[in-house]
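Marked as duplicate of an earlier ticket. Keeping the data here for the record.
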Amino acid sequence: MVDAVLILGPTASGKTALGVRLAQTLNTEVISIDSALIYRGMDIGTAKPTVEEMGGVPHHLIDIRDPFDTYNAADFVKDCYAKIEDIKARGKLPLIVGGTMLYAKAIKEGLNEMPSTDLVVRAEIEARAAEIGWPAMHEELAKVDPVTAARLNPNDSQRISRALEVFRQTGQPLSTYQAQKISQCPYQFLTLGLMPANRALLHERIEKRFQLMLDADFLDEVRTLMKSPDFVREAPAMRAVGYRQAIDYLLGECDKDRFFLSGVAATRQLAKRQLTWMRSMPDLISIDPFVEDAYAVALEAIRKA
């Protein structure tokens, strides 16, 4: 008997709708595993489910932090484990739904001791990257942490930045920390992965959803965030896909067409990374979310677990 079910998938693959439908059938509750949904005031650009979309199913770990508060994988593991215990105590099966693969890895495999984010160091790295470009920053990373550099794309700005940040803070490579597990997972998970066979359809859904966000005044949402006295451009929340591109546009660093194209491209790249993460999970049960029997396949897998 599993302790909880993980439903993972790339952005725009229908995770939320599938999770709600399953939760309604199984009379269970949902724990969000999404590093952006935790932030209050970030609703449109994160495709945060509305009350109607939640369908009466209790959802946890949504709107638990202000946008410029710090929150990391260690925080999520602690919060998620607490919610698992609460839901199990009510005699229900926790359904953990989302797309933040780092968090999924952390709750399943344990956690390593990582230094917290240093916005000053991050700003210095961003400024340096603006001068020489991320491929050159990738070369710098290769000199101090070849293990991490070898697995990163030269244009993966977020992960290159984090790896350099860790090294500059501690003098130790990120790969060293990742190799040192300090906790073990106390739960047994069933992991379902939404793996679209039709990649073109996923890309089409991503572009359509980004346009719907713009139609729903996504830019006004970002303007409001930027007016906050706590606004920090390098804050993790502001580096979320879509928000970073919107900030560039609102600061006059690109035109509207470039903003749209870069936002869609960044979202597609995110989806590609999410799929790569899932393919590396040996216990993952793959389900194509765009076929008619996706719900039935997922439900049967849960009932057999």
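See parent ticket for discussion. The CA atoms of residues 9 and 194 lie 5 Å apart.
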